[in-house]
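--- STAGE predict ---
source: upstream dedup step, 1 unique chain passed
mode: sequence only
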Amino acid sequence: MRKPKEKKAKKEQFQLKTPKGSKDWADKDMVIREAIFQSLSSMFKRHGGVTIDTPVFELREILAGKYGEDSKLIYNLEDQGGELTSLRYDLTVPFARFVAMNNIQAIKRYHIAKVYRRDQPAMTKGRMREFYQCDFDVAGTYDKMVPDAEILCILVEGLTNLGIQDFKIKLNHRKVLDGIFEVCGVKEEDVRKVSSAVDKMDKLPWAAVKKEMVVDKNQPEEVADKIGEYVKLKGTVRETIAELKKDELILANASAAAGLEEMEILAEYLEAFEISPFVSFDLSLARGLDYYTGLIYEAVTEASSAPTNADDLKKKAKKSKDGEVEDASDFVGVGSIAAGGRYDGLVGMFAGANGKKASIPCVGISFGVERIFSLIKMRQQQADKIRPTATQVYVMAFGDGFLKERMSITKKLWAAGIEAEYLYKVKANPRKQFESAEKAGCPVAVILGKDEQANGQVKVKLLGPEFTDTEDGEVIVSISDVVETVKTKLAQANVGGMNEITRLLKGL
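--- STAGE serialize ---
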């Protein structure tokens, strides 16, 4: 009796892609990203930082109420075993929770990790839903503005070390801003709402910001007009302080006066660190996050702003089935590439949950790696020269293959800290070996030949067309000298003593 034919299992159909606002990273991009991480982390260590790591998700109540209007961008997870959790929105709130939970009185910490936001992606501008932040924070009680000034120094040092020179640090003080709002007649319960509207002045014209204040935030028109007179002020720290001190209403306001006093102290320290030219005291900067209590700042470049015809480009942008724009890259700017501020009440908020009264003052900076990466990738000519692998030396053989000998020399190079590879073939074809070396972008080859091997020697050769006809393009040395010779040749291959990734980061 014949068995009935079994029905073929229906193949599951799905779209093979990464989730919206995320991407895979590989090859040259990963080399550049790792170099950025290394540059920033080594700088953090120079400033006395110790690193920590925290869970990628937090209890939902830890994150709730810390981000103002941006709280809607938090990724909430499903109930798992009776706990409501959310993916971390930034690294600042988890750090404050860590300090409070462990009763830490003073720490300089840095943290490099991924954070998550349900924002509108603009992939080529580094605006994503999953992205890295590189944070440095100082927690502890110190003299006024001393840690704040060093944080700003770290901001300048971090960006200039990455070859970013044409940036401006927009600086403001929450006490000054709150004082201005009070003077203009904003009620205390409306201060954060008005602050979030002012924070949009880098993206919208004043008329649109004023409309939001009046229509959406229910502020009288005369209040909005008064605010407009103040928030358009900007200049050097000393210039803006001098302008504000001409205003008797500002000087009579306790909050604004306290903020100006701190800004005058800061001006001295910025000059000591020689970073004043990078800083602008800009009263339009508000930073919408609720936890800031003092100095606030963000670094911007020409690429930060949206194109002048952004509205037209937005209308033409490709949309998904639900009507949402898939990628806003064409009509938005990079935005700020680093930002931060002082948040003296956040640790105390968590400490209070444990019945403790201690409040630890904190100040910090966060570098946006994806946005910085997008700026570095714009250096197209240098970026094209980046090699996808770290391999420096390819160990080859002509003739008999010499597999064991290739293994032995490669091991010597590894032991000396030199990145090296060889072809996994007993009988290695010379052409395939050179192709593999070219694919890896190796600047140097160590070549074993029958005659050289009989004399305990190898050939060390610089690869690349620029070294083909040069007298010092290759040398024959004893196997015992191969490591030192390779080091010499690698230095010779580097332009100006720097490899291609160093030159890219320095913008050379």
